[in-house]
Amino acid sequence: MRRLLSPRLDRWYYGWVLLGAVSITEVVSWGILYYAFTVFIAPMQADLGWSREVLTGGYSLALLCSGLAAVPVGWWLDRHGPRAIMTAGSCLGSLLLVAWSQVSTPGSFYLIMAGIGVVMAAVLYDPAFAVIAVWFRRHRGRALTILTFFGAWASFLFIPLSAYLVASLGWRSALLALASLLAVLTIPLHALVLRRSPQDLGLRPDGEPNDRTEPELSATADIHVSLRAALQDMDFWWLTIAFAISTFATVALTVHLIPYLVEQGISATYAATIAGLFGLMSLAGRVILGPLGDRYPRQVVTAILMGMQLVGVLILILVPSMLGAIVYIILFGAGSGTLTMMRAALLAERYGSAQYGSINGALSLGLTIARTLAPISATLVAGQLGGYRSLLWMIVVLCGVGGAAVLRFTTQSAAASGEAAKSSAS
């Protein structure tokens, strides 16, 4: 088996093999650990008699723990690579799903959800982005497009599959089936395929020969910004603010879109159908708009994507109809989906790969705060300021601030270069 999986350096670049492996495991991990939860709310509520607030509170706890774990996970990735932590995450995730299938008290459920949150930090996009940051430079945009293209299929595949399993087997047996799928489809790939860096195999990023010294490759290779230097760089905080705003807007609208559309006279069935198109538009955005980051300044493309979110919400306000809702979901969904890959690329291009995991973990903590606060704070804003239209106008303003923050990141690029030089000299 080891001989079959050993990299043939004279025939292909092993980074593409790694990318294929993590693309598969991201579909499965996102689908089972993140998206499938929504399918289990109703059957667990009916069987156990727990309130919806108790159940969704467990999910919120998982998201919070995922954000808190992102920093130590990033530290581990920078020092030891992805193989051990992603393999351990898959093993632990499978065991926790088995434990979930046996819960009978809210306390045990919350404990399991906290563990699943830690597993999310170890196996979802952040460690996969770290793999790409280390193994690719010139082809980083293409690699991110491929990875997030696969990831976008997770909800399409695993929400219907989970629903079918629950209907056929019951929710407890469905969790056991999903645990088996997670174990079989992710543990072997993480354990047998992942490697720490191309240098461990005698390669350079993108598979370039060791004697290649093009200026663009050398310049990229010289970027080694430490976590401490990144946190002292004001532009890191502009970027964090921008993506935290985008995350807040996405989560708030995910929660409140259907009630708003119903309030505008659109039937619940049509409203749910429109909301369900978000994943499809996200997928389309990554394929169509994602490559633009390799052709034009990535910061500018990112600001335009946030502008698409702004325009989409503006249309949702000004055209309260089925047509307006469809245009909104096209613009907002495509923008949101593509921003995921832009964030990973911007961080890697700005701060390099040496401590990418730690820096990305610090940024992810900020996004987790926004993701955790969005549902309840959006509800409070809508209730205190006169309904959903007030909330939507607030999101329009926030999206404008996010786009401006990204452009601020662009104009301050010299500061990061100075920090990089200090870090290299120390």
What are the key terms here?
426 residues, mainly alpha, 21 helices, disordered N terminus, disordered C terminus
Task: Write a structural description.
- The protein is an all-alpha fold and 426 residues long.
- Helices cover 82% and strands 0% of the residues.
- The chain has 21 helices and no strands.
- It is globular.
- The N and C termini lie far apart (44 Å).
Summary of the model, kept short:
The chain has 426 residues and is mostly helical. It has helices spanning 2-5, 14-35, 37-48, 52-80, 83-100, 106-123, 125-135, 140-151, 154-169, 171-193, 215-221, 227-232, 234-263, 268-276, 278-288, 292-295, 298-318, 322-351, 356-384, 388-411, 413-425. It contains 21 helices and no strands.
| Strand/helix succession | HHHHHHHHHHHHHHHHHHHHH
Question: What percentage of amino acids are in beta strands?
Answer: under 5%
For the largest beta-sheet, the strand count, sense and barrel status come to:
none
Morphology? globular
Summed over residues and divided by their number, the pLDDT gives a mean of 84
Work out the radius of gyration. 22 Å
Intertermini distance: 44 Å
- The share of residues in helices is over 70%
Low-confidence stretches: 1-10, 213-222, 411-426
* Record field, number of beta strands: 0
SS summary, helix count: 21
Q: Helices and strands: which structural class?
A: mainly alpha
